[in-house]
Amino acid sequence: MHVLVLDLIHGGTEIGAAYREAGHSVDVVDVYRGTTPGELRGAQHRHYDLVVAPVHLDPDHPLLANPAVPVITHHEAVRRLLGGHLPRPMIEITGAQGKTTTAHALAHILPGNGVLHTSAGTYRCPGGDLLFKKSITPASAIAAVRSACRVQGWLVAEISLGVTGAGNLAIITSPDTYPFAAGKKSAIDEKIASVQHAERILTADGVPCKGENVVRVSDVARCDGMHCTVRYDGKRCILTNPLFLIPPYRTPLMLAAAAAMILQVSPAPLDHFTALPGRMSISHEKGLVIIDNANSGTNRATTICAARYARHCAGMNELTLVIGQVEGDGAVCEGFSADQILDAIEEVRPSHIVMVGRYPGSGTPRAEALQGMADAFCITLEDGRNAAVRIAQKGSIVLSVKTWR
Predict the structure, then answer these.
(1) Which terminus of the chain is more solvent-facing, meaning fewer CB atoms within 10 Å of its CB: N or C?
(2) Strand partners for 123
(3) Region 267-292 average pLDDT
(4) What percent of the chain is modeled with pLDDT above 70?
């Protein structure tokens, strides 16, 4: 079979290599940066038996124009390439919010050896030894699956914009959506379409996914303050963790608990799960309370929640907000717009503002409004944190910068 694989940025090289290992003839073309002009020209005149395209690509791209040639996504290609050589259990997690927290919480629960594949890195469990750092494009799941098989353990994997469907449980963590692929696709629709091959599906409330194998989290888990009661298949468990009080943690922890019950594993270890760096973790410096909310899912809602939490922990209203998106962080699919940032600032009403990274919507009236508000401008999250520590006299600091961590 002659296969055309598009997009080197989102894992085309790994997918192309896997097809070659399987004995196929493969051409790999960079459709975004123009680094393979010869291959691009050649691909326009060759016959292919299969085209593998990323979900991000404009569906009207010229290389997708031949109706006689089947086109599949990177996600589907990885599912086919993995075949039956899979770890058990294998859980794939996708969604606009809460992927990393859900993944870490579920890895905290699962017994024995396993591999945790996240945007922050891929780790061997237990122990947390870093194996490698890759993106969470579907192609990266190939290396994660092989690592899990080597340790004869489970795999919990974050996947961007959908799942491969190879695993025996797929989780969609959020109904939030945004347009992509030249504005012609909806993120949540793409994620729902990707789970069609999954054995079982678990979703957050509000995800419009239907089917006999779909379980909604509220059908399994219910929270009352810091307590969460989980019921499934005649079994019941009551969990207690103060993180259930924090909205950005509540749904991910409920999803992890529900997934454990579906997998016939006790979710009791969640009683001892603690906040993750970049996801509402607390530190102190110079008498200041610092809430770290800087991650790929940072948005208006999480910023407001982090500010509320920071003021509660500090016991005073004074708050310095570090906000923005790291310059050039193209790995973040949906940006932190000037409108979102301004809305967050207006809601939080911080004493001081430190802007980090690029100006969202540079040149627009709202971007200009941001410029007039800021006490300092920084390039990196670390610089923003240091500036906030210098500026703040008392109270708390919230790090609310959108970046992969």
Answers:
(1) N
(2) 116, 130
(3) 94
(4) 95
